[in-house]
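Risk register update: the risk of archive-format incompatibility is retired. Evidence:
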Amino acid sequence: MLRYPGVGRRKIYRSDAEKQAAYRERKRRRQPVQFWHRSDEWETPQEIFHPLHAEFAFTLDVAAFPHNAKCERFFSPAQDGLKQQWQGVCWMNPPYGLALREWIRKAHESALAGATVVCLVPARTDARWWHDYVIPHAEIRFIRGRIRFGNSPNSAPFPSAVVVFRPNAGNAMSFFA
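Archived output:
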């Protein structure tokens, strides 16, 4: 960006790319912090996990970091939960990025193999993975309102759902307050 004497606050950009980058940065700064989260990792809130743990008695957290694992047994990113065998009653709050479809597919396949997998996921009812795996094969519990993840001062910019894949189970929808 060049500044010329007498021009004041008007900015002259060297290229369209530089101008577009500056626009995106200004737009990002105007948005609340939750819209520009730099990670696809969202820590499970205790007020969501505890009632589910009381109901299901989880034995394995399939997508966790050592500092936020919800079960004694867990798979960290180094172990890559997608490459592991899921057995027993599993908790899953997966990364919410592009790999989310693979995590949901793995949850469905693990249920077919005998595991129960309870997932906290964004309620992306328009997504292909939702229609391919969740609607026909899982119990769906929509969460009222928006979840506040981790230590974030704001709620998530998306609705969430608890999706339960059970061995030999069909679909059932409910609301989880």
